[in-house]
What we know:
The chain is 21% helix and 17% strand. By secondary structure, the chain is of the alpha+beta class. Helix 5 (636-646) packs across helix 8 (704-720), helix 13 (964-982) runs antiparallel to helix 14 (987-997) and helix 13 runs parallel beside helix 15 (1005-1021). The longest helix is centred in the middle third of the chain and has 28 residues, at 359-386. The radius of gyration is 45 Å and the shape is elongated.
Amino acid sequence: MQELEREEDSQLVHRDKKQFFIKVIDSFACPPGKYGPNCSGTCSQHCFTEYNCDNTNGNCASCKPGYKGDTCNEECQNKTYGYYCMNHCSVGCSNICNKTDGQCNCLNGYKGNMCTEKCPNGTYGDKCAQNCSQFCVPSTCSSENGFCDCLPGYKGDKCDEVCSLGNWGPMCINNCSVHCYNTSCDFQTGSCNYGCIEGFQTANCTEPCNKTHYGKNCVNECSWNCTRSECNSTTGVCEQCVPGRYGNYCDEDCPDGKYGQDCINECSISCKDGCHPVNGTCINGCQDGFLGPFCNATCDENHFGPACSSACSLHCEGVNNNNSRICHSVNGSCLLGCSRDFTGPQCFEAINSGSSPPVGAIVGAAIAALVIIALIIVTVVLWRRKHPKKERTSFKERNITHLILPEKDIEEKVSEEIETPKEDDDPGFIPDATYYNTSSEPLVNMSMPVHELNIYMKSHDKEFFTEQFKKIPQAQDVTTEVAENEKNKVKNRYKNICPYDHSRVHLLINTGKKEGDYINASYIRDNNDKVKFIASQGPNKAVLNDFIRMLWEQHVDIVVMLTNLVEEAKVKCEQYWPESGKVSYGDTKVQVIQAKTFADYTIRTIELNQYNGGTRILTQYHFTSWPDQSVPNSPWALVDLAMKVLAHPTTQPIVVHCSAGVGRTGTFIALHNVLKDAEETNRIDFYSTLVRLRQDRIFMIQTPDQYEFLHRAVQAALICTPTVVSVSECSERVKELLKKEVSGLSKIEKEYRSINLVSKDIRNSQLDDNEVEKSTKEKVYQNTHELKKDGQNRFPNIMPRKFDRPYLVCEQKNMSDYINAVFTPALFKKDQHIITQLPMPQTVSDLWRLVKQYKISLMVAFELEKLGTDKTMTVYLPIVVDSSLALGNIEIHCTAINDKDLWEEQILKVRNEKSKSDSQDVVHLKCKDTEMDVKKLLSLILKIRAYTAYTSGRTLFLCRNGATFSGLCSVLCTVLDRLDEDAKVSVPLVVGAMKTVRPEVIPNLEQYRIVYEVLERYCTTASPYTNVGGEKLPLTIPLTTPLTTPLTIPSHIINNPTFDENSTDPSSVYNNV
């Protein structure tokens, strides 16, 4: 060993960059590894080196790994290792680790030399060599033993067992429904493998049939002859039959001599050949001596014979109190004998007295009578020559004589022997006659002044309307023989919905083509007894040509269609117009010239063309938001359509049809008739209106719900129809609204109060249907009333109804489908606008799930300045450009910020973290000013509408309560959309529809006034109709143009100064767009 330089004092030296200590020794110290007097002690072998040992006491300056203590003789204990035993063995070690380097044998779930690595997801056991079951719920498998939560359909600690037969779901804890056919179901979903037993439906067969369906999977409809079409859900046996029917399935008419409910009533013995099975009226008239619909009234003392139409002989002896002669009511025989000089049973035979009659007197009287008759005939002929009959082309001027036919003409005349019409015959001409009242029931006077309707509606509930509806009679003394003719049954969509013989529409007969005169359609009168409508069934395949024939022959201008072609997987109406090109129906070619689709209806312009017959144009108003035998969620959309139809001038009958042509059709026609009465008489009478309709067609208005809905629709329409504002009269209209009347209230205040009252009534009438559903599966699907506890609603009194809110897809088990948001009625799409509250800490990820799942392209947010003071609010956006915010599994990245005085625009990319390619472009518009300044507000609305012109995505409006500012913005966008589309708008129609969905929208009169003031400013400065005489200016890009490509906002819109509050002329917006 090389001797180190000698020094008086020892010093510390670093060697080979290892931090150990060497004591410098002089030439007189002990040799390495020795210490003590005479160097007799041996240093510990666990000293780091032999040079570490103190030559005086043998203490080590440092120890080898695994040892500690002054002399390094203490081994590491308590699962420690390394230098000075400072390191702890891994928790993954199964026992004590190597005291030098920490290596050990691993517990299950760990791997690596030192057992510091946990098993990767999906593996477990010794050295992570085993794979978790593929039927484990992801991320739930224990790395120690492979135990996990199972996917539906599997069980066992390791989810390696399939559910036993009859069980399903997670851990197989659910039993297959007892209503599954063969009690067999899918082991994962629980859906029944072979469908449901009789009486149950849905995939899991847990839901019983509704009252109108029965049988396996509830696919069979109960007989229409069951009361309310309700039957036993298993067998189809009717709970009760409609009057006139009996039997298990109500498929048999009452036996001869019986009628009414359960056929327990006896026909009058005075009926001739039985009575009507439904109402007991004598179909073929009365026996001699009786009269009345039930033949229960005898002739008075001075009449007799069939229908008491003959008067007793003047020569009967004896008179009654009215000084009239008395005779037998059946045969007319004089009960008290004959007066002098007459004889016979009826005292008509004169007794021959032997003197000859005064022949001269008789002849003179006869000649005088003939002269009088001749003068009458000459007078009539001269008058007709001076007043020639005009050819009648206007249906309003026609009385429908041909509806009253002699008995021999009742059967449809389809035969080769019938002569064709003469060339000079006018097929459109209908002779004069009087349209008679077919009901012998007196009309109940339930008329009321228009101004009492709201009070009336507030004081009556659903049960009242149901009871009143039950009391409305069907027509009496009516027949449907032609409709029930064997040849025509195939032309009826429903076998018990047939037009009456007296009011059915007659088509022209073409014997060469074997085209008959029958179609299931009826002329319908308004309350002034003028034929205004044709109520028709939706055509089936057998009558498509006949339906088009009817449109042509009746010169129809307007068709109102109230059904979808297919509803609940059933064909309700055959399509009678082509999607493109031309289609021929018999002799008529049909082509759609134009079609425009709105949120609740489509308007089509249809051309009919016949060879040598010319071309005709009709408009079809197709309402698409009315479920069969039910009612829409609110009446505002139907009122909107009805107002368009009423504003469309026509002199021809309006064809209205749904599927059967009675329920929805009857409701729409009744709405028109009641509103017409209100306009002409300032009174309304729902009951009498429906009684009159049923005299012309059976079952008009089918259900109590439709009857109540009619009342609600009239309520809404009475507010909307007088409040339509056109561009040209907008300023005057606003001035008029602000004037106070004698009552001290302004018109605008009255209007606003009416909207609040009616929309509240409409909303309250739906309470039975508006409970937000509770889950039968997991707690995450909660009733919204429970959600108040969970911080998902900022204001517990502002809650969505179940059919108004968007449902979120639950991508993970702990997610909820709920967010406090509602769809608000827009013009072009039902779900185009969504309003919601600004997110709370617990709902911020739900907000972005909403944005992603419902493809929001524009977000408009108010009241963000309260973020620092309102503890219920939270940050939900990246703060600076090129920054990102991760919320749940969604990442929001900001690509640009454009800051203005009134708003701040952020261009965002929203994507799922797991799928970076699934990127969605979103514009976020933060509004800095919530002051109700009309000019600024209009600038904001114009900017929003410019954005929406470039994308088919939805618009989301946000504010603290999800109503006050977001609702105002949605209302204004819709109001201006409607004005641009029609050059006129009803503000109450828009606001009423919104308030029915979210009552807190437009919460005060001040905001309602603001709507009109923004509308007025738009009309005078920015409307495309402004200063062009009411004609619409063409826009470079229409506001309704949908784009299928992702949103890319042009820079000239983002930076457009015309959207700034300093702009003086917002009309330049459209030029720039």
